[in-house]
Fold these 2 entries.
Entry 1:
Amino acid sequence: MPQNEYIERAQKLHGKRLDTEERARKKAAREGHKQSENAQNLRGLRAKLFAKERHAQKIQMRKAIKQHEERNVKGAAEEKDPSNPVPAYLLDRANPTSAKALSSQIKSKRAEKAARFSVPIPKVKGISEEELFKVVKTGKKVHKKGWKRVVTKPTFVGPDFTRRPVKYERFIRPMGLRYKKANVTHPTLNVTVQLPILGVKKNPSNPLYTQLGVLSKGTIIEVNVSDLGMVTASGKIAWGRYAQITNNPENDGCLNAVLLV
Amino acid sequence: MATVLPPPSKRQKREEIERTTTQVDVAPILAPELGSFKANFVDSDGNQMTDVIEINFADATEKNISVLLNTLLERDREEFTPYRFRIHIPGKDIIVDQYPSDLLGLLKQHGVENPFETTITLSAEPQAVFRVQAVSRLAHRIPGHGQPILAAQFSPVSSGRLATGSGDNTARIWDTNTGTPKHTLKGHTGWVLGVNWRPDGQQLATCSMDGTVRIWDPEAGKPVGQPFKGHAKWVLMTAWQPYHLWRDGTPRLASASKDGTCRIWVVNTGRTEHVLSGHKSSVACVRWGGTDLVYTGSHDKVIRVFDAVKGTLVHSLTSHAHWINHIGLSSDHALRTAYFDHTKDIPATEEGKREKAKERFERAAKINGKIAERIVSASDDFTMYLWDPTNNGTKPVARLLGHQNKVNQVQFSPDGTLIASVGWDNSVKLWNARDGKFLKSLRGHVAPVYTCSWSADSRLLITASKDTTLKAWNVRTGTLAMDLPGHEDEVYAVDWSPDGKMVGSGGKDKAVRTWRN
């Protein structure tokens, strides 16, 4: 593999070889034979690598062929009668019903989103990535690379959490900043109970923080409320409810939240 | 004892003295002397109607000038026709469509310095003598169909009968005066895609997904004869032969089908007279013109004009770039209602009826004294073309650009002056029928507009849309006259009765709704 542009430079200075087009054409013509020779004769690791590449190519080829086929067969596919009665001007047209389903899906999603975020703390000042992450350099003395990040704010990791192999983990969540319990206040009953955290549902700053489990003010977490003895409308015992964090846990050292009912 | 009024207070006494002693300024109360202008009246063909006359600006309201013109044309008081005027600005090429309340101001605005000495040309458009009121309320909601309603049409005889076709394989006739179903026409084995009343209202034709066309007697609710079988695939639309063209004592019917052919049936015998083939794709629309020409528009982007007597091709109009969805005919309303009109006097004899139907057709189709029946075709390529096949052959008269999405339907107004087009871009557009110029865009719908229907006096337009509302528009001002929500789901078909009394609509919610004023 060329490390620099010496090939292009030479071509610009001295021009191309007189038979480059011929050679390129002949090389392209040999491609098929070369491919089949490789497929049949490679062994070991190289065979595996080749097979992987070839598999990906074949998937793409099959997709393209299928699309071409669909284009030719279009007439036959549209012959079948539509199921819902439609007037003459709507026959033979792409389904209006699927479009309606899509729009009603989008509308219900928007409604859901809107409802879920009617929370006690609606707006939160976001945390920037420079503030959250501290860069940790790894590698030997001269060739240090800075792709590792340490999270400087409290996080939640979950009970069955094991770190990635240390060489490959990008985000380090220090044990000292991990929280398992939250002081949850029930808004109407005005009692505060310490409840174990089940997971982080949404961090309003950044979806990346949600994935990492960063606990900041305004984050929605799920807590285990079986201690409170709450029962749902259908009679079942509720054991998980959402709560929103109301303090800055990195400053206080404890996690306070209010239950969302 | 008589009632004694309290004596006037000091303020009242003071005001009284002021009023009696000071001289009132009379000038602002009197009408200002604005001068006058000379008016030259031309009709829609450009011919001068009467002598040039001088009119005061102070008296120059549209109504007054209309009365003046009627008097100049020496008409009796009973024969007065209301006129609308369009002002040709002298010296320039501008034509103002809306008659302004301040004519002098308008002229000054357009730079006419001395209107007193100029002759202003006013082109007069006769309006329908009767006036249709905008429908405003839901009169009846009549359930009955088991599947969405796909087509609806009022009988030309009276607004008391409405026929609807539905996906439950039946067509039903409703009595709209009482809001009850009259007959259920069973027989089809596929969705009924179209219903079409005979121009004299004595028969009803229905076409269906099962490839047949059936004729029914609407008063008895029974089929007439055998179903017309012959098409290979479903039949999309039918068109009756106009009343004044019937030969051999029998009407004829044209039907358009997905198999690419159009068939002309002799209704009394049920025989196929001609098969108009040549289209390479589904024929979406068929219209029977008043000069015995059959116009068929197809998904193969071509409109074919056939001679109905011989069954041969006359013209092949190829200008569109995509499917033809609909064809509008300039004499559509006149042909649909044959000898029925607002005066409600029906001729006694057969010949009288034919004469009246022919006369109505000629009045609708004549331009400059010559019969020029025009068609406008709406297409999926977002444009429409205005054609005059009898005079202009295969060259379109005008190309109507402006829609941002497929155009679904296009209708000429009953008086032949306007074209309304509705489409998938949620807008309704109005065009001048003479030269195809764009007039107005009516916006209000929030989903594709499917169909439209004109009122009989051409002043109002009703549109039905996917957003479940009907909207009645006043086309003079270009504004919404009435918004008619009420349907629970998409509205597929709407029709304004030819006598203007009510509107009938049907859609996906399977219930027929009639609307009245």
Note: The helical segments of chain B are 10-21, 62-72, 103-109, 332-337, 350-365, 389-392.
Entry 2:
Amino acid sequence: MSQGDSNPAAVPHAAEDIQGDDRWMSQHNRFVLDCKDKEPDVLFVGDSMVQLLQQYEIWRELFSPLHALNFGIGGDTTAHVLWRLKNGELENIKPKVIVVWVGTNNHENTAEEVAGGIEAIVRLINTRQPQAKVIVLSLLPRGEKPNPLRQKNAKVNQLLKASLPKLASVQLLDVSGGFVHSDGAISCHDMFDFLHLTGGGYAKICKPLHELIMQLLEETPEEKQAALA
Amino acid sequence: MSDGDRNPAAAPRPLADVQGDGRWLALHHRFIADSKDKEPEVVFIGDALVQLLQQFEIWRELFSPLHALNFGLGGDGTQHVLWRLQQGEMQHIWPKIVVVWVGTNNHGHTAEQVAGGIEAIVRLLQEQQPQARVVVLGLLPRGQGPNPLRERNRRVNELLQARLPRLPNACFLDADPGFVHSDGAISHHDMYDYLHLTRHGYARLCPRLHALLLRLLGECQGAGP
């Protein structure tokens, strides 16, 4: 809370409707309604990396069976996700695992600020959803060839590796390996626009992610007992 | 070309690299390089609605068999597609059909300007690809409820419907299967963010386009040597 004054990436901020069709708010409202209707065990929240995941078959194969909800919105920064989580997207639900994947769109912020924004999200989740185990996904490299954003995203990951262990119930899952080839290039087969993942690209990261989620779900004290009775 | 002075939607313009990783230009160059040894019969060019189509199974089912290439770039407006074409994005290929689907991202432009931008694309294609039929897809409605962009897109389609028949080898297809429900709402089952299509949305839209492409390709064959 105190960090918010000095770190814009950690200040909750609703997206402005610049285009004129209010789609960001419409999506947020839909997610708030989902929280009232549904009982997810797993919640994914973040930017288009989260949102697009649900468009591929792999979501239905690996995550739907886990009663997962997807609260990704394309273009979102840490500030947008913070606002959404504070304004209804954590109400009426009690997920066991929350996956957070955001930060690559924080163009106005330094790596330190972005890491701080992600930490603020984790702390908010710890407060509102103390039972939830949080998985923070590392930012991926981007762009066809080496460029400043790759360094920035790598720096964010490095900072999180150091800071997240100090927070409760959270771990960083580093899925950023395997995308940059020996010549420094990223392939269209993994990221169709050198940012967003193809089905093949998602398969690479979803394997370790799914494994970790399953592990965390198994660790959770049960409610299972009550259901069996 | 002269249009550009008065109509920003018809003035070729690259997308500025504001983010800092040069992705747009990299993709433009990749489209050129990758097409060097290909002989597509159909080329799709436009914005994210074109680009994302290739990520779904339906592309492989319906369009790969037609030897199609996908030159979609998310975020593109008409002025960006114009620039890419002018810079020779299709210099290595001679398709029978070019499908153009762009205009919904032309923020700040009027419907007349957007239609003018699309027409400029059609005219440039007629110069560069005189053998090709050009199919212009209508802009889809967007947003969860009624809003000014739906009205603007509808008006663009109206203008194109009237004007395109006057251009040789060009035709207009409104492929909207009825995404707007009777209560004025668009469902997230069709457009996950009320703009971009889901697999289900594409499955509703693509058959009409596919049927038109088959018909046009059949006509090309009929007219052959």
Note: Chain B has eight helices and five strands.
